[in-house]
């Protein structure tokens, strides 16, 4: 059953990645992560050693659901060219698996990279619509940050392709790069009627993980047990900083400066 995933009053949602290579490793991760009370989980299936066995993937989805107290789940096969692990599946097989996973009751969102061929995006979009999942179209760049206008264009392109959620993650070389991402998020949030996830990676970009929600990014990633991207910080630290900002009611002051 489709459900509203992002309640405006609860933003930002904190998502933690699962990166175990086996079902047992993932179960162990969950034991440590769920008690920290994230708002969502991301299963990074490109880490999973049995990614080429659909029955094992589906069985592991069921195990994740049973151990996660019903937390929403983002299903991601990150490509190697965008920071993921090398996998045994070719592109058509990845699409086949994503479409099969859409039938599962234990998945809420499907991540698919916007750089993929349009016909593959359309096929995954059709499957998400048919089975009432949310489609996250994503783009990652690990060496630089585009200009603000280019970031806005990238997010708008994802919206045009049918994204329910548009996600971008870039590596900043300066603090100005981080501000370009945040300002692009704010402007795009005012222009488009989709949810946004925007991240500035690495040490310089940490502030985007803490403050991005003030500019319109609905979700931020934190380490539950193992990091899946540069610059992720612990869920405890992230929760503490966000709670402090909300408690002090200082977010309007931050944005207005």
TrEMBL record:
Its EC number is 4.2.1.10. It comes from Anaerobacillus arseniciselenatis. CDD domains: DHQase_I. This is 3-dehydroquinate dehydratase. InterPro entries: Aldolase_TIM, DHquinase_I, Type-I_3-dehydroquinase. Pathway: Metabolic intermediate biosynthesis; chorismate biosynthesis; chorismate from D-erythrose 4-phosphate and phosphoenolpyruvate: step 3/7. The active site is at residues 140, 167. 3-dehydroquinate binds at residues 42-44, 78, 209, 228, 232. The keyword Amino-acid biosynthesis applies. Homodimer.
